[in-house]
Structure formats: C-alpha cells, structure tokens
Design a protein that fits this description.
single chain, alpha/beta, Rossmann fold, five-stranded mixed beta sheet, 4 helices, 24% helix, P-loop_NTPase, metal-binding, GTPase activity
Length: 139
C-alpha cells in the first residue's frame, strides 16, 4: 500500500519463460538449478520424474522443468516438452566415453524433436572443475 500511495506504484511484472532442463543422470542439472536459486547444493539426490523451479532474475523469471536423466525416464522426456520456450542441456564433461556418446544421442534427438527444434538451446558442459573434464572443443 505504501509503495502504491507514495511511489510510482507496484513494480511492473517480470516476464516469465518456460524452459526444460535435460541431461543424463549425474550431469548436474539439480545442482545448477539449486545454485541459480541460491539454495544449498549439499545432500542433492538424483531427480526421479521431474521437478520445477522458478529461477528469478532481475528482469525475468525462468520456470525451469528439470527432467530426470535415468535411462528409464528419458523415454518420457518428450511428454514434458510442450509449452517450452527454450532448452538447457546439461552435459557431464568428465563422464565416460559411453556416457558421452549416450548424451550426444539424446542431445541430437532433442534437437530434432518437433517441439524443440526451433527453440534456443543452451548446452552446458558441466564439471569443468574435475581432473577428467574434457574441453569444450573435445566435447
């Protein structure tokens, strides 16, 4: 009330954007979103199913739907793509060659999906602090 009476009124609403966050189990999706929301990253467990977080920024709010990356969950990812306005693909840059190949296949599948193929993609090479991490060029 005070702000409305004495100032210029309430601040204008921030635009909201719906994103989907995908990647294999252990790639760091939950840790990334927890950091962006200023939450503790201790005791994080793998996401089973999906989780939604509102990530606030000064000029916008990102509503991020994080999808679990386990093999038995990945086949359901496409059911959660509708309404997305962008994609965050998190990749463990220190993963094994097999996991990197699996991640590559999942990324290519997402890039070709009709509901995602025209959207902006952020590909995040996570775990760069680990000794086995590959460079962005290697990834």
């Amino acid at each position: 009330c005070f702000r409305a009476l004495c100032c210029k009124g309430p601040p204008p609403p921030r635009p909201e954007y719906d994103l989907v966050c995908i990647g294999l189990t252990g790639s760091g999706k939950t840790s990334l979103l927890s950091k962006l929301c200023s939450e503790s990253t201790e005791n994080i467990v793998s996401t089973t199913g999906f989780s939604i977080k509102a990530v606030p920024f000064q000029n916008a709010i990102l509503n991020v739907k994080e999808l679990g990356g386990a093999d038995n969950i990945r086949k359901y990812w496409s059911r959660y793509y509708q309404g997305s306005q962008g994609v965050i693909f998190v990749l463990d840059s220190a993963s094994s060659e097999d996991d990197l190949e699996t991640a590559r296949n999942e990324l290519h599948s997402a890039l070709q999906h009709p509901q995602l193929c025209t959207l902006p993609f952020l590909i995040l090479a996570n775990h760069q602090d680990k000794p086995a991490a590959r460079s962005v060029q290697e990834v």
